[in-house]
Amino acid sequence: MGKRYTLEERQEALKLAAEIGNKAAAERLDINLDTLYTWISKDKNRRDKLQAVVQEKGPEGLAAENDALRKALREKEQEVEILQEALGFFVKRRKK
Known about the structure:
Elements: H1 7-20, H2 22-29, H3 33-95
Helix pairs in contact: 1-2
């Protein structure tokens, strides 16, 4: 199996490839050129999908969705806290 690269290593390789070119970056970082091309392709697809979502929803739509997600997260965190407190209560009660 080939070497596994971290997300940071991949991002650094993409940045270097944009600055000095794909082949030079692959040689400098000792990465297979085909691997670098795969990373570039996946990054381009990711950016294209992100751009499509931004264009579809617009900044206001994304802000509203973020607010709704933050609210849902707060509610779930409160639920977890309540359950942890209840668990502690039952554990204490059982030890008696």
